């Protein structure tokens, strides 16, 4: 078997093991240059065997489609969103992360006298009514997922000063919060940096799992709102447990 083909098989196996890795980590594992890894990633992406992200790659099946996410645990997400909405006073400046739990929250905040920075276009559509002022930080829209990522997003978020950031996550465990894409992880960190408080909204299905892109440790959070009761989590960060909406 040609050396390049063997290396690419090993690369795919690393992604299967880890869910996704940065270009730098792939180069280290494979013992080759980052330029070689980028060429391999481009070749494998053309074959539809992986999905590239700025700074790394992951397997296509690693992140569920948005339509699937919408159907997962809707009553739990609604309960989490209701508790989160009660924390927002009129006149506040809020950043809403991309995701389906924050979409449930957007429906509850829409029309209120708030300033909301929406990190995906689906949120903005829901929020833009009544007295709610909606700000979009720009950037590239992730097709099929609607989140905003990239340099423009990061640059404009740097000009925001928010009272609270409601963070979403693909996964979280005792090591911290993780996401499927490195670009989204960078946007989340920026939003945390410009907000007085960060509150994670995550249902129990996200706990104990890990996605490839690290966002932040749990101790960077002010609160987790979830339907999960777990002593390990509660020992690491303040937690508010909600009951699902019937």
Automatic annotation (TrEMBL):
PROSITE patterns: HTH_DEOR_1, HTH_DEOR_2. GO terms for molecular function: DNA binding. Keywords: DNA-binding, Transcription, Transcription regulation. It comes from the Bacteria. SUPFAM superfamilies: NagB/RpiA/CoA transferase-like, Winged helix' DNA-binding domain. Transmembrane segments: none annotated. It holds the Pfam family HTH_DeoR. Residues 4-59 form the HTH deoR-type domain. This is DeoR/GlpR family DNA-binding transcription regulator. It comes from Thermus brevis. The lineage of its organism: Bacteria, Thermotogati, Deinococcota, Deinococci, Thermales.
């Amino acid at each position: 078997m040609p050396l390049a083909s063997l290396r690419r098989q090993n690369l795919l196996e690393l992604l299967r093991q880890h869910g996704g890795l940065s270009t730098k980590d792939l180069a280290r594992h494979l013992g080759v240059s980052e330029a070689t890894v980028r060429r391999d990633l481009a070749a494998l992406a053309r074959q539809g065997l992986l999905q590239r992200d700025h700074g790394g790659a992951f397997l296509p099946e690693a992140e569920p489609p948005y339509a699937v996410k919408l159907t997962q645990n809707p009553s739990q997400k609604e309960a989490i969103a209701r508790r989160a909405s009660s924390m927002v006073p009129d006149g506040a400046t809020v950043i809403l992360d991309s995701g389906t739990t924050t979409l449930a929250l957007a429906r509850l905040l829409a029309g209120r006298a708030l300033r909301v920075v929406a990190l995906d276009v689906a949120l903005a559509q829901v929020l833009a009514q009544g007295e709610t002022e909606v700000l979009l930080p720009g950037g590239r829209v992730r097709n099929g997922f609607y989140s905003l990522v990239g340099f423009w997003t990061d640059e404009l978020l740097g000009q925001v000063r928010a009272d609270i950031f409601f963070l979403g996550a693909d996964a979280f465990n005792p090591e911290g919060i993780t996401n499927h894409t490195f670009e989204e992880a960078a946007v989340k960190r920026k939003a945390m940096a410009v907000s007085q408080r960060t509150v994670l909204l995550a249902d129990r299905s996200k706990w104990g799992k890990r996605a490839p892109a690290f966002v932040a440790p749990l101790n960077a959070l002010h609160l987790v709102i979830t339907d999960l009761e777990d002593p390990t989590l509660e020992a690491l960060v303040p937690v508010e447990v909600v009951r699902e909406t019937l």
